[in-house]
């Protein structure tokens, strides 16, 4: 159980050994503990070279020391950082010495960031953006995470929440002071036109949720088609390594294979699936079942067929884009009439066109969208809740003002849950479990 009265510490700089190991300390005794280890403290937010010793005077290491008094620190508490040589024994000795101080303990996953949230240094969207920034592997993931960490999305939601609060205040003023001369006789012109506009803004924002999730989680591209259509060969060609076994035997691929690609800064998750056909072979049938399930969850299906054979275009429960790809162009003449493009995994012909096809699709999805986008299912769900109750408030012309005011309150409450302003304690353990110990 986390205790905010504890002083916490952890290695914050990643795996060891390394050139430098950064140990972070935060809490009410952070500066006292640091002074006990290094003697006199350096000037605030200025690095100083110090000898770090145990309380028995044994030298642990020499390194840079920085202190950040509250509230001007990452966590909002007194903080310190010890930059030591990144050897396992050095860091282990320092952590052991810190654990000997009364009220000091090793931090839990994400506990530094959780304290930053609880002390008002960050909101929940910014915390999630920080987790995404640490995990980012592509340029677009980095840019999306920076937008969230910098507060772009939070500012948008808080602005909307302020408009809802003001609208609700005007509605309740008419309810409570209908007989007063200085209260407008009708709030329609003041409130409902702006709420209708906000409804449109929320709806447009939600339309970008699919792209936000694609940037964060990756574009899901499934290679599907009949046995021996060249699916595994294409997977290997795009991955530029032997991911899948390739043979002339139909049904070689039995399970779903997956590889992550970076295409023009976007994360792309590429899946190779079992050949689709009727079969009585039990294991192959299970592979086909998994192939169809994966295809149903895809953003794009590359439906492969050897040139001269019509590719499959209908997939159960799939509503996204299907690109028809003719394969083995090295042994067949190009057929531009029946396919979106033709390729040869053996010679590389058409692979540049396929790459550009995926890039163009991503650019189409992102057209006219900023990166102030919802990127998690949690965001989407709460935005949908807010939009639904706002729509009820706007469209319930025959309902009483008290009922419409309650709809506005519910809409604001859902927005508040996104940033963590209201009632999110049940979410915090899940969110902070994604973090490393030192963050």
Task: Give an overview of the whole structure.
It comes from Rhizobium leucaenae. InterPro entries: G_TrmE, GTP-bd, GTP-bd_TrmE_N, GTPase_MnmE, MnmE_dom2, MnmE_helical, P-loop_NTPase, Small_GTP-bd. Belongs to the TRAFAC class TrmE-Era-EngA-EngB-Septin-like GTPase superfamily. TrmE GTPase family. The chain has 439 residues and is α/β, with parallel strands linked by helices. It has helices spanning 30-38, 88-99, 111-118, 124-135, 139-149, 152-176, 188-207, 209-217, 231-239, 282-296, 351-366, 377-395, 401-419, 425-432; strands at 7-11, 18-26, 48-53, 59-68, 79-86, 104-106, 219-225, 257-263, 266-272, 300-306, 321-327, 341-342. The protein has three domains: 7-118, Gyrase A, domain 2, CATH 3.30.1360.120; 127-208 and 377-420, tRNA modification GTPase MnmE domain 2 (Four Helix Bundle (Hemerythrin (Met), subunit A), Up-down Bundle), CATH 1.20.120; 215-366, P-loop containing nucleotide triphosphate hydrolases (Rossmann fold). It is built from 14 helices and twelve strands. The longest helix has 25 residues, at 152-176. The model has no long low-confidence stretch (mean pLDDT 88).
